[in-house]
């Protein structure tokens, strides 16, 4: 009997305990499936961590953008133009220092760096530009008139030299000088001033024209000058005082 068993063993026939090998064959696929499942789980966890980090970065960038937007909203509306202007002025100052260190004239260096096309374009732009932008307020209109009148002044250099010889340093008074009220203008100077004033009056009369009269308009003035003043006040402040005027007309004003 023992010989038969040994012969069967030599032929590779399993004996009565052969069930353990089949169990090992069944355990092999289950271990591979578990490993695959573990790998898929690790992959899902990795993707989850990546999404979590992206969400964190997005929140961080959004917070930074909100802070920057709040800063921009608190800045004045023309801040970008002012910033560009300041940066340009800093560059100009640095360029001037470099030119001064080299012993060069900044204006000449600046002109050498300008191309002929840019110079021609700027000249055409200056010719097309209208310095009179129309009426904005009375201060601006007065400034334009002052600049126009000063450009027309032709100084008398001979008279200026005579005054320098006569008064010396007193010709340039300071806060402690008592030179005020001692100057007597010449007859030619007075004549020039009178002629200029007459020219201004004549020019002003040409601009003055009679507006058409509206018979149906409300009479809220006592004379012609008061009517013009009321028209100007209505043009600038009418939209703010319309409700008050209506309440006064209805008699419901508080």
UniProtKB/TrEMBL annotation:
This is Pre-mRNA-splicing factor SYF2. GO terms for biological process: mRNA splicing, via spliceosome. It is found in: Nucleus. Signal peptide: none annotated. Its main location: nucleus. Residues 1-39 are annotated as: Disordered. Involved in pre-mRNA splicing as component of the spliceosome. PANTHER family: GCIP-INTERACTING PROTEIN P29, PRE-MRNA-SPLICING FACTOR SYF2. One of its GO terms (cellular component) is Prp19 complex. Belongs to the SYF2 family. May be part of a spliceosome complex. Keywords: mRNA processing, mRNA splicing, Nucleus, Spliceosome. Residues 1-14, 28-37 have a biased composition (Low complexity).
């Amino acid at each position: 009997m023992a010989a038969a068993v040994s012969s069967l063993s030599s032929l590779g026939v399993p004996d009565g305990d052969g069930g353990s090998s089949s169990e090992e064959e069944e355990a092999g696929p289950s271990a591979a499936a578990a490993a695959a499942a573990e790998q898929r789980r690790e992959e899902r966890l990795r993707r989850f961590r990546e999404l979590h980090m992206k969400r964190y970065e997005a929140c961080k960038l959004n917070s930074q953008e909100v802070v920057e937007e709040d800063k921009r909203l608190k800045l004045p509306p023309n801040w970008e133009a002012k910033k560009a202007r300041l940066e340009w002025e800093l560059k100009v100052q640095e360029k001037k220092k470099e030119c001064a260190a080299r012993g060069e004239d900044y204006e000449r260096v600046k002109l050498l760096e300008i191309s002929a096309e840019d110079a021609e374009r700027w000249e055409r732009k200056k010719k097309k530009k209208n310095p009179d932008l129309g009426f904005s307020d009375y201060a601006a209109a007065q400034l334009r008139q002052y600049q126009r009148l000063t450009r027309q002044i032709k100084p008398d250099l001979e008279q200026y030299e005579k005054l320098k010889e006569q008064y010396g340093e007193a010709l340039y008074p300071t806060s402690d000088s008592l030179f005020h009220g001692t100057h007597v203008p010449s007859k030619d100077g007075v004549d020039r001033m009178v002629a200029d004033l007459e020219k201004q009056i004549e020019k002003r009369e040409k601009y003055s024209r009679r507006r058409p009269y509206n018979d149906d308009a409300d009479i809220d003035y006592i004379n012609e000058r008061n009517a013009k003043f009321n028209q100007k006040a209505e043009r600038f402040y009418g939209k703010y005082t319309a409700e008050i005027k209506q309440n006064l007309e209805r008699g419901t004003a508080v």
